[in-house]
Amino acid sequence: MIDHGAPTLVVGFDLDLTLVDSSAGIRASFDALMAETGVAINVDEVLSRIGPKLEHELAAWFPPEQVTEAAVIYRRHYAALGTTGLVALPGAGDAIDAVRELGGRVLVVTAKSTVMAEMCLAHVGLVADLVAGFLHGLEKGELLVAERAAHYVGDTVPDIAAALHAGATPVGVLTGTNSEDELRAAGAAVVLADLTEFRAWLLSSRPESAHRLRGSGI
Q1: Which of 151, 115, 157 minimizes the C-alpha distance to 138?
Q2: What CA–CA distance (Å, rounded) separates 51 from 16?
Q3: pLDDT over 90 (residue 5)
Q4: What is the rounded distance in angstroms from the CA atom of residue 32 to the CA atom of residue 53?
Q5: What pTM did the predictor assign?
Q6: Residue closest to 110 by CA, chosen among 132, 88, 78
Q7: Rounded CA gap, 31 and 85, in Å?
Q8: Which of 86 and 216 is assigned the larger pLDDT?
Q9: Is 170 helix (H, G, I), strand (E, B) or coil?
Q10: pLDDT at residue 57, as a whole number
Q11: C-alpha 189: how far from its chain's center?
């Protein structure tokens, strides 16, 4: 039985390349942006660094005065194309279930817009207690502080920085573009191959909770 007098476990997850593989939809949306604006964009290069805010990426391809308009065009296309090929990454659903079975709350904290993040989660059948968008790096860390997150799981070096800023355990996953060496050098306390390893790690980090769960038959 869960001890409801204990502090609530709060775990944050990044979205892109942590919970979901959104690369096909991002590619389709950038292709549509190029077709509409006539601006050449190396989409493979874009996909090699998924994680920052859209406007930051667009600044690499558009003059400063065109970035805002380009973002509006991209998001219009992403609303229609963003779920193209979108899939939950291995273990994503089970990782969320593991937090909930410990009486915890699940946050999804992402640089993607909140609306688009919610669209992606709904498409793959994942449900979070809070979805916070338009946040990157230490901005994520501030949200994690406000929500008293114990752990934050992500695939990039800025995700690790966000967790450290918040005093949360930085958990890296190798489903994104950063290597294990890069994530550990940034301060990751643990690096998982993917979220199929998350449940075992979470239970090992909370042995008393794990014992209660096993005793309850969950």
Answers
A1: 157
A2: 7
A3: no
A4: 19
A5: 0.92
A6: 132
A7: 15
A8: 86
A9: strand
A10: 97
A11: 17
